[in-house]
Design goal:
single chain, 179 residues, alpha+beta, Alpha-Beta Plaits, four-stranded antiparallel sheet, two-stranded antiparallel sheet, 3 helices, 6 strands, 27% helix, globular
């Protein structure tokens, strides 16, 4: 379907005029399609990954390794979403490491969207192979992101991510809490 601005009114959640390729940290949330609880279960305040959750965790690790100037601070896979802190590293602080063949050059900082698109594509492709559902969407379209502005905010977000399984009963993404 071709984009028609008169029919399609997608509102961007991105900060206008913000350069998402610049070094910095971002708090990201990615949800499964229709918020389906398919990645695992919360048992006694701990996340227990199911097969697709383990695969998503593995794909996240591979994604971070794929992009040499991207680091992941903390992350958690929840039953129907994932939270992570993505750190876009200044290529000049990388120590001149030459990336392996097929990876972006050290001089090119990937856009946050490109990193997340790669992760979502790889995860979806592998899960669809397991389910026998080629081309089926697995993740919800788009993602939520917040620019982390200082160390204090970074600390609060880290704590939020680490405690997310403990707070599942009151989590807005928990289907039991959706009216």
């Amino acid at each position: 379907m071709r984009y028609d601005p008169d029919k399609h009114h997608r509102r961007s959640i991105r900060l206008p005029h913000y350069d998402y390729s610049q070094p910095g940290a971002y708090f990201v949330t990615i949800c499964t399609k229709n918020h389906e609880c398919i990645l695992g279960d919360i048992v006694d305040g701990e996340m227990r990954l199911k097969e697709f959750g383990s695969l998503a965790d593995e794909c996240w690790r591979q994604t971070i390794n794929h992009f040499p100037n991207v680091k992941s601070d903390v992350w958690v896979i929840m039953p129907n979403h994932m939270h992570c802190i993505v750190d876009m590293v200044d290529p000049d602080r990388r120590g001149g490491v030459t990336p392996p063949c097929g990876r972006p050059s050290a001089e090119t900082t990937p856009l946050l969207g490109r990193v997340l698109a790669y992760f979502k594509y790889q995860t979806t492709k592998r899960i669809n192979e397991l389910r026998g559902t080629p081309g089926a969407p697995f993740w919800q379209r788009n993602y939520y992101e917040r620019v982390i502005r200082d160390e204090n905010e970074l600390g609060h977000i880290r704590q939020y991510i680490e405690n997310n399984p403990l707070n599942w009963d009151s989590d807005a993404d928990n289907p039991a809490n959706i009216a």
